[in-house]
Amino acid sequence: MPLASTDLEHLARQIKTWGRELGFQQTAIAGIDLKMAGDRLREWLAKGYQGDMAWMAEHGEKRWHPDQLLPGTARVIALRMDYLPPDSNLIAVLRDSDKAYLSRYALGRDYHKLIRKRLATLTRLIKEAAGESVVQRPFVDSAPVLEKPLAEKAGLGWMGKHTLILNSEAGSWFFLGEIYTSLPLPVDAPDQPDRCGSCSACLNICPTDAFPRPYELDARRCISYLTIEHKGAIPEELRPLMGNRVFGCDDCQAICPWNRFARPTDESDFHPRHGLADARLVTLFRWTEAEFLEKTAGSPIRRIGYERWQRNLAVGLGNGSASSEAVRALAEKRDTASPLVREHIDWALENLRKQDTRAPGPKPFPLLN
């Protein structure tokens, strides 16, 4: 027997309580009409901004029709979990050309596993409470799901000019997760209107000018794409602009005024491991493949593999100081490196050789008030 509206309202409140107890900072419920988001996605794909991410064009309309991905879906439960580690020292690392900058989300354990487990628990609690046949499925960046439009629709925040979800009380340092459900739960009214205003700090700070216009990202120029998703050679004209960013890039978040309200996470799994928050480029480049596999176990860094890890670090070293240690580390790896890595080592060595006369490199990160 279907739940009465009063029972559904009570269950919606209970879901939000369970969400908090499971470590989510915010839980909200959205409808499934994503037509406008689907139109924007098709326009974005038509411009080729997805680069090598062919999977972005796969699965037909399932991305903006949740009920096609999971038949019977009536609502989406959207959740937010903060991840900014305490004392992440990110600005100091960005300004030290001999340190390796890794996106702050990747310093700890892989968020997929932690959030997936919590969502599975929440899904079970909902099913037990509903007392009826419920169709449900949790997602964590693992299926054709339009996470950001759903988060915006549910009221977790608004999509900023840098295309990330912003929350006026929490900034943007958070992960998203969803549960598709057949329960016709009451939806939440979005209470986070676009508050970017005339600010363009995120667009101006981007090292590679990856934003053709506000609210639009050309992934082919984005350092996160280049260091994580892109499998081939990094375009030579973009290498000097990458600086020491070797796994992802957080500049557009670090400069955003709304991130003054971000709170450090208490989740120990998101805290830095193996000194990755403050590691030297040379140290990481000298890791053997066995060391890489050992120290990235359970980490999102593992997915790019050792070859791309070395490719990215070679670029970082080429943008650093021309120390004898850096030159020696690059030269020692050259003969045993794959053709892909060797190409970037050769570029790095040449860049260090002509360092005194080369064109200006990456934009210096500004002082923050």
Q: Helix coverage percent of residues?
A: 25-40%
Q: Within the largest sheet, what's the order of strands?
A: 1-2-7-4
Secondary structure category: alpha+beta
Helix-strand pattern: HEHHEHEHEHEEEHHEHHHHHH
Tell me about the largest β-sheet: 4 strands, antiparallel
Number of helices: 14
Number of strands: 8
Uncertain residue ranges = none
The dominant shape is elongated
When the domains are counted, the total is 2
User: Radius of gyration in whole Å, from Cα?
Assistant: 22 Å
Describe the structure.
The protein has 14 helices and eight strands. The strands form three sheets. The protein has a four-stranded antiparallel beta sheet, with helices on both faces. Strand 5 and strand 6 form a beta hairpin. The model has no long low-confidence stretch (mean pLDDT 94). The chain has 369 residues and is an alpha+beta fold. The protein has two domains: 5-86 and 104-181, no CATH class; 209-255 and 268-357, no CATH class.
Secondary structure elements and their pairing?
Layout: H1 5-21, E1 26-30, H2 35-46, H3 66-69, E2 75-82, H4 90-95, E3 101-102, H5 111-130, E4 136-139, H6 147-154, E5 158-159, E6 165-166, E7 174-181, H7 201-205, H8 223-229, E8 245-247, H9 251-254, H10 281-285, H11 289-295, H12 305-318, H13 324-334, H14 339-353
Parallel strand pairs: 3-8
Antiparallel strand pairs: 1-2, 2-7, 4-7, 5-6
Helix pairs in contact: 1-5, 12-14, 13-14
